[in-house]
Structure prediction request, 308 residues.
Amino acid sequence: MPERTPIILDVDTGIDDALALALALGSPEAELVAVTTLAGNVGVEATTANTLAVLAWLGLDETPVHRGASRPLARPHRDATYFHDANGLGGTELPASSGTVGADRGPAAIIRLARERPGEIVLVCLGPLTNLAIALNVAPELGTLLRGVVVMGGAFEVPGNVTLHAEFNVFADPEAAQQVFSSGLPSLTAIGLDVTHQTAWSRSSWEATRAAVGDPAAKLAVAVCRQAFEDRGLTQTYLHDPLAVAVALDPDLVRNEDAAIAVETDDERRGKTEIIGPGSTQVALAVDAERFLRRFAERLSLHYLVGD
Ligand code: BDR
Ligand code: CA
Prediction:
């Protein structure tokens, strides 16, 4: 087997976080070292319970899970239940997991694991950047201990999805995002709406998968997206977090621009991410969507209709 990439997923599970966990677990080139959680799409108690339940559903309830930040650095928590439902999983009730959370909290676990395996781990942040900002504050050397950091966040040359200006993960904790993007992390990739809005799971593919569903990952994907397709009548749902996982394992899926990024923290343009010149963050501006979608479908045993 080729060498596996050790990854930590920092999640606010969340519909597409659940799909990202399934993609990581279904990818033979990934070694899922641990999962850290935080408040985002729903509160941290729920994102942690959802994460444990998803891992148990996928048969990997021994993966270490560490609960992290319960609120943004400087603001009250604002959730995204308008999209992910009150339970965060589109109303899907998974069997509760008997799994437990680790003794150390999310940021502490990230630092400990990075120190245990210097230069090996890729951290993939799929929620607000609170845990990473705290970890960088406590251990500024973190950037040299990690092989890389991939962040799902930002809307650089496209409109936002919470406001005209802002993407949800950056909007939720703009101070954390501002700290992370100005931290000088040596290997930081931003997967924003510029590319995730090119990668969607279509309703026709969802329907075809539902008709033939068998595999646990496919059952999970069908269940968590049911509300979006059936109750809300959407024709597609974006694969934000799965794309970030896929890029962590195969950076060639995207084409990046080396950029310096400013994050707005004032109320009017809260969470706006702007490229202000050349810099050390790799901002993804183009994606091989078809290659990603084929891989995503294959790894989760989904029915992929060419040309969807
Ligand atoms: C991001 O916001 C969350 O709602 C999703 O899980 C994803 O991480 C997309 O803007
Ligand atoms: Ca997320």
